[in-house]
Design a protein that fits this description.
The protein has 218 residues and is α/β, with parallel strands linked by helices. It contains nine helices and eight strands. It is globular, with a radius of gyration of 17 Å. The two termini are 18 Å apart.
Length: 218
């Protein structure tokens, strides 16, 4: 692949697998609130969506007050279990280091709480690899709105033509399209390559290290 001055990454299922933490937090929250539980696959297929949308899809709740009540209860469990239940894919940090060695700037643009993303990077001693973290608390309009990408580019001082956004979902593909930046998809999440082909993209890749000009990142 060609090199870009700026690489913008989604987090869940792109750089890291957080499903263990997410599943645990949802199941505990259902139990706490006395609600019927949801199947793991139902929850998995909402990872990466804005939290309000994910909760509505999983629980069937429609009223904003009911959704917010669920999120508040979930947040307590996420404070306990999310970071411990989130782990980088083996190739993720070596890929980021290789990009930094090439002189690239790196940002995270995620619908996940940005503080939780930063905490995982800090615990792995890798926070220095990322110049800018944009999470759900940093925007008024979550992905697929382009606000997060626009904020990241403003922070990095780059143009849209300088950037490649990498993600695993249709939400990520829609975000890149709405922001007017190039998009590379990875199939490490729950979205198939066939579904991702429907959106503008420069590549659809099996894993994150394939964005490098060379796959040798040892």
């Amino acid at each position: 692949m060609k090199s870009y001055p700026i690489y913008l990454f989604d987090f869940d299922y792109t750089l890291a697998n957080s499903e263990k933490g997410i599943l645990k937090c949802f199941h505990i929250t259902f139990q706490k609130l006395g609600m019927p539980d949801a199947a793991d696959d139902t929850i998995r297929h909402t990872i990466g969506l804005p939290m309000e949308e994910a909760v509505s899809k999983i629980t069937g709740l429609q009223k904003p007050a009911d959704i917010e009540r669920f999120i508040e209860a979930y947040r307590v469990e996420a404070d306990r279990y999310m970071t411990e239940g989130t782990h980088f894919f083996p190739e993720a940090l070596p890929t980021l280091r290789a990009l930094k060695e090439q002189g690239a700037k790196i940002a995270i643009v995620s619908n996940k709480t940005g503080s939780r993303v930063r905490e995982r990077f800090l615990r792995d001693g890798a926070a220095g690899l990322v110049e800018c973290f944009i999470g759900s608390e940093d925007v008024t309009r979550p992905k697929p709105h382009p606000e997060g990408i626009e904020k990241a580019l403003a922070a990095l001082g780059g143009a849209k033509s300088d950037a490649l956004y990498i993600g695993d979902s249709e939400t990520d593909a829609q975000t890149a399209k709405s922001a007017g930046v190039a998009f590379a998809a990875v199939t490490t999440g729950t979205t198939t390559a066939e579904a991702l082909k429907a959106y503008p993209h420069v590549a659809i890749l099996p894993s994150i290290e394939k964005i490098l000009p060379s796959a040798d990142i040892s």
